[in-house]
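Reopening this ticket.

The earlier resolution said the output was attached, but the attachment link was broken on my side. Pasting everything inline this time so it's all in one place.
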Amino acid sequence: MKDCFKSTKTKKDKENFKINLDNVLESLNEMIVRSNERLKDLNKSLETSKSKLNDLQSYENRYMKLIKEYNKEFNKSNKGYSS
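Inline output:
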């Protein structure tokens, strides 16, 4: 960029070079802002997914506990009939 700036001969060329650099900087800043917003959205989505996963795991644990209790009671009642 230094070489490009040095090679500009006229004041108008230098001013155009500066304008172009300002435009590039502005575009980069906009990209950073959009990227940060996207990152926030993704983090929010990740937290939501983690929360749902925890809820589902808790539900699964309760379900498995009930299945075990049911099997235990079922086995008790089968032993009573087989005797």
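Reporter confirms the inline version is readable. Residues 10-82 form one domain. The radius of gyration is 33 Å.
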